[in-house]
Structures are given as C-alpha cells and as structure tokens.
Amino acid sequence: MGFSVFSSVFVVGLFSILLNNAAAHPKHQSPRQSASHNYKDALTKSILYFEGQRSGKLPPNQRVTWRKDSGLSDGSALHVDLVGGYYDAGDNVKFGFPMAFTTTMLSWSVIEFGGLMKSELQNAREAIKWSTDYLLKATAHPDTIYVQVGDANKDHACWERPEDMDTPRTVVKIDKNNPGTEVAAETAAALAAASLVFRRTDRTYSKLLATRAIRVFAFANKYRGTYSTTLKRYVCPFYCDFSGYQDELLWGAAWLHKATKNPMYLNYIQQNGLTLGADEGDNTFGWDNKHVGARILLSKAFLVQKVQSLHDYKGQSDYFICSLIPQSQYTPGGLLFKMDDSNMQYVTSTSFLLVTYAKYLTTSHKVVNCGGSIVTPKKLRTLAKQQVDYLLGDNPLKMSYMVGYGPRYPQRIHHRGSSLPSIASHPSKIQCTAGFSVMKSQSPNPNILIGAVVGGPDGKDRFPDQRSDYFQSEPATYINAPLVGSLAYLAHSFGQL
Fold this sequence. Notes:
Blueprint: H1 8-24, H2 39-52, E1 94-95, H3 96-113, H4 120-138, E2 144-149, H5 152-156, E3 171-175, H6 181-197, H7 203-222, H8 227-230, H9 232-235, H10 246-260, H11 263-272, H12 291-303, H13 312-323, H14 344-364, E4 368-370, E5 373-375, H15 377-392, H16 416-419, H17 436-439, H18 470-473, H19 477-493
Helix pairs in contact: 2-4, 2-19, 3-4, 3-6, 3-19, 4-6, 6-7, 6-10, 7-10, 10-11, 10-12, 12-13, 12-14, 14-15, 14-19
C-alpha cells in the first residue's frame, strides 16, 4: 500500500509546480482568505452522521429520528452484553477493528481541535462515548476482547434495516489462544485517546478508560498474532489486516504514552520502534495501517514536549509529507487518490494529519525540507484545505461528497437504513431479500443520512451515484472521524466558530 518518495530534484520541481498550480487555481485558497465553504455547517453534519450509525437502545435526544432501536440482544449468543456501538458503514455488522480506529480518530480530532468546536464539542464527545461505552463492554473480561457482532456474509446476503435484523448476531472474540494483536492494540489506542477527551469533564470515566487501555495493551503485546489468521472466516475479506500488527503496537504505545505519561511506554517505543516498523516507507494512513499516524503523534512529543529521544519521528513525518507532493497521486481535478475502494477515507485522514502536523510545526517554529524545497506549515494547511474543499464541492462534478451538504450530493448511497423506508413510513418488517429491489433501483434514498461522506469519485473524478457501487457510494465511520478535526480547524480559521 505504500509508495516511494521521488528523488530530491523531482520532488522540488513537482512541489513548486503543485504550489504554482494551487496559486493559479481559484479554488485553491490558503486559510485566512475568504471561506470557500460553510465549514461550521459541514462540521455539524459530520458529527450528526454518527447518530445514524448507532446500534442499540437510542437515547431520548437522538437527532436522526428515522433510525430506531436495533441489536438489543447483541452478545446474548455468548451471554455477554454487547448492545450499542456503531455499524461501520452501510451494513448491519459491528466490526471492532474499524470501530476502534474511528474512536481513536474522533478522539484525536477533539484532543487537537476540540477547543475550537464551541457548540459541537459536546456532540463530538457524545459520538465518542457511544463507542467507548461499547468498547468497555467488549473488553470487560481480562484477556478477551469481543471484536465482532454479526455474520458479515449472511448480513450481506440481505438488504434489510437494522431495526428488522434477523441474520445471525454471531459473536466473535479474541483471547490467549486466538490472538488478535492489531484489533487489541487499536482498542487500547481508542480507550487511551478517549481518556484524554474526558479528563476534564468526567474524571471517573477518564480513569476507567485509561486503566482499561493499559490492560488491553498489555494483552495485545503479550499474546501476539493477527486476527486475520485466527478469525479469517469472520473478518476477511471485510476488515482483513494487510499491514500486520506492528503498526498498531506502535500506535497503541504512542497513545498510552500520551495518556498516562508512564515512562514505561516511552521506553517501549524507544526499544521497539524500529522492529515495529517506525521507519518503513508506508505512507497510507487508515483503519489498516497506523504507522504514519504514530509517527506524527510521536513527532509532537519531540517537537512540542522536547522529548529528544523521539527526534527520528520528525524526519519520518517529514518523509510522509514529501511523499504527498508528486502530482501522479492526484486526480485531474486535484483529489488525492490512493485506491478505488473508498478512497475518500485517505483524503480525510491525510487532511487531518496535514493540519495537525502543521500545528506541531508552528508551535515549534519548524518546517519540512523536501530535498531542498522548504515546505511551511501554511503550505500543509493549504493542501489540506484543497482536499476538504474538493470533498465539499470544489470538483469537476460540482458535487459535495457529504450527504446533505450543499445543493448537490449523492442521492443513492450504499446504506441499508438510508435506502429503505423508515419504520415510521413502513412499520411492517421488510424481509431479508425483499430490500434488494430497492437496492437495485434508481430511486433516491428516502432517509437522508446527513453528514455521511461516501467513498468518493474514481481516479478520473467520475462518480456514477449508484447504490450498488459500494466502492464509491458507501459511507463509513472511519471516513468521517478524521474529517471532524479538519473541519473544526477550518471553521475556526475562517471565523465561523
């Protein structure tokens, strides 16, 4: 999934071309000029989306009212309470691996930019807590983590509302005999990051999250193995781990270092960083590979907290920044393009890393040197803004890829609950296969999943808006989570918050 950095000369030349093009292009404005978009509105919607993904008993203040209670017996197959959490995308399965990553990124968004969120901060915290409450249940028993609820193959053979679910709610777990280091370490990262979010507002809950994170990370580190091997028939090909578990161990340790300040985790990082792939050339950040995120997070400890032993993470973070320069990685319309399947997740995660790293560089009065070409924090923010603006409508199709934002957005997203009539308009059960006639139809989705960001256009900026095209038309929690931070930053930059 990684790609190589171009030679120094080539990088310098391409970077200057890219920035010149950005300056010449009217849609590419640097922050603090006039706002291209209503980032505050987009921020509100990006957080609201998570309410549409909720599983379990919905609260009285539920704002996405076409959704109702679902999965109320989840966990009963193994006599545990696993009610709650999020459906990852357009289906009705709860996958622990992407849910934990979503939680980590929502938490990081709040840690870095929550101070700018104003009225949306409480909504963001609630989005995080909906997940952490579930992750606490999933990790309640020592040396065991419940990592999935639902049989993905059987779920995908149906097109039904979560409220009508009648497919098996199979419970899948990892333990000492069936390890899953990557999902355990990501869960530890999520709990640790979230503990920082609640540190000032709910100290008891924050301590519970931190204590659990410590225990879960110890389990991840002690019993090593990939869950894609032990649980292959349940988790592959859906959330098969392709990058190995080393990145999650580094990422988890980085978050525990930040959350606990225990020198044990800094020692762990210093001793194991290289064997865990800290210096690998993989530059794609998402639910599968956390190396880049770990490098950026650890570079803060060096840049801002002056932890000299983490000096190398600045260089490795710079390497990632320089890797974003070659124009071959962008669509003709200017969108960062990594792969056909749900490409927008890489756009949102990269944009978040750009504004976050720019913040660290600004604080420490540092820049990035790409083969002699100096890249300032302002340039990083400009590139991030270009990506977010493309997502919100500054693109060849003039389409917003966030549902409910702007005058034109996807009408036929690959999402069961959104595409089928709501309980209010159709109280009787819609059977497993009966919904496929709707899935295959050209009719717009009756329930607007406000704030959902879809997989996005292809490498040539094309988007057919077909419900059956899950590569391009399916939204996912891990697409939205990092976008929350970027939108908060942009809304604040343009005086909208």
